[in-house]
Amino acid sequence: MDNLSTWEEYFSSSMKMNPISKRDSKDRQILMRIFHHKHMIETIERFEWKNLPASLPSDIIERVLYFRFKGGLFYDKTLERFYFLPFALKGTIDSYGRYNSIMPVLFTGQWKSGGNGKFLEDLAFMQGKEFFPIYDMPEEEKLTDPGEEEVEETELVIPDDKAVILTDSTLEISQDFTPMGYLIRPIIEQLVDILVLVNIDLITSAKVFYVVAKDADQKEAIEKEFADLDNRILNGKRVVVVTSATDLKELTGSNAKDTARYFQSYQSIDNLRKDVIGADNGGTFMKQEHTTEMETETNSNSGSFVLNNALRMRKDFCKIANKIFGLNIEVDIKGAGENDSIVPKGAQSEERDGDDQ
């Protein structure tokens, strides 16, 4: 198994190493994947979507936003299915820099679709077709005068040349923005670095003993004996019999551990990671040994502007999509209103009130 520490390998070959060919250890790569996956789950689970079309689960929407930052809602009248896909400019932009027309691009895979146990063949309508985004809420139709004859309501025709765009957050000047799946990499690198330092600190601060052996054969026998001892201890064996007297001497040195400081830094950086997506945390860099309840409440960001901005983008998308495509999509922060921080009346108070009555 590769060691988490790559320092020895780095220093021994830094002068002759090609920077392009440098790779992290296997353990470090796995740690990076763990943190990336954890951050992705925490990001896409912030919102709860309701009343989505059967062919469009919420995971698809949030995954596209996480890895591509933006996506468009399209409808195919031939297959009678909705699609939410990344897109590219096809044509011109308006005075705000918004796309006047777009074309879908692949998220992953091919221009094929599976669903309802069936495999749908090549989606020709998605290849090179032009869609026109709707950015503004359509105006309500004017009410007819009482004297006029009532016009029979016609069945809503779902347009297959229109699209509704959803971005993960408010755009900057450009229509393109870096997705969260890429933005979070430097912070995750910091978290992995701290775990590597913790591992090194624990190893270097551990007690080390040495035994003087007469020759190579005795050295091999002693090493085998102590390896067996370690194995017995880890397996819960209390009685150990050794065949030779060994004089253990401890290697002295500085063994002051910085583990607590490393984990404090880890918590601060992890809170910064949560702050980036608007998730609740106990404050980014306000760390103390003792924190009062008021300080914790002040430092936390349960009402984050970041989260509110992401929610507003999704709610505006729902309003326009519902009007254009005749849907009833809703979205809200997951668990909103379920966990109140202040309970107005405790169980004991309710019992006393019942006794008084």
Task: Describe the model.
Mean pLDDT is 76; it is low at 1-15 and 339-349. The protein is built from ten helices and twelve strands. The chain has helices spanning 7-13, 26-44, 58-68, 180-183, 185-204, 216-234, 259-277, 293-299, 305-325, 347-356; strands spanning 47-50, 70-76, 81-85, 87-89, 102-104, 113-115, 118-120, 132-133, 162-167, 209-210, 249-250, 330-333. The protein starts with 6 loop residues before the first helix and ends with a helix. The longest helix has 21 residues, at 305-325. It is elongated. Among the domains are: 23-138 and 154-181 and 311-333, Upper collar protein gp10 (connector protein) (Upper collar protein gp10 (connector protein) fold), CATH 2.40.500.10; 208-253, no CATH class. The strands form five sheets. Strands 3-2-9-8 form a four-stranded mixed beta sheet. A two-stranded antiparallel sheet has the order 1-12. The chain has 357 residues and is of the alpha+beta class. A hairpin with a 4-residue loop joins strand 2 and strand 3 (81-85).
